[in-house]
Amino acid sequence: LLDAFRAHYAQFMSVVVQVHTEPTDPFLLQLLGEDLNQFAQLAHEHVAIFEPEEAQTLQNSLQVMILDVRTLHERSIESSHSGRPEVVFTEYTGRPGRPRTVINPDFLSFAYRHRSTSALSHFLDIPRSTLRRRLLECGVASPGTNPFATTSSSSGYITNISDDQLDSLLGLIRWGIVIHGFIDGYSRLITGLRANNNNRGQTVLSLFLSA
Questions:
Q1: What are the residue boundaries of the Integrase core domain, all occurrences included (predicted)?
Q2: Domain assignments of the chain as residue spans, ordered by start
Q3: 65 and 12 in contact (C-beta within 8 Å)?
Q4: Which of 10, 120, 2 is nearest to 51 (CA)?
Q5: Full-model pTM
């Protein structure tokens, strides 16, 4: 877990240096700022795994990066057309029906690697179905049988975990931190629990055999 935090911190450092030297779209800077804030929150929640000096250095550096990205974002907004970056715009085709919503394909390619379809549709304020069609048209996402399929279970709830706790666990996956666990079905005793940096079958099997 500690190595995963260090690796992602180094990646953030590299990206921040890159956006300082290359022109970057305001929307991408906004996404980077949100990622940095979420990573800083995760680091704060797991501060106990760091040595005190390293934890302080990490938190200070993240705050500096967040401020740098925020400043770059504000400058980019000011220099863009009418203060708004043109990532999503409306195209009038002259045919019957509503005008077509067009999304910058470069932005889609970058953003889809860092956000879910649901999160992106909320961020861009467009319907999820419209976003999905544009992702397929640009070749960013692969078609599926039904990308919005839902399933239901007759077994009911099997855990009392809160939404906040679940969000915290899912947030870890995004940074390459995967929590694997095993529980005895009869006694409900936890027989194995480990944080890993991958979700491969061999990793899960190793935990199962050692449980």
A1: 166-211
A2: 1-83, 87-143, 176-210
A3: yes
A4: 2
A5: 0.43
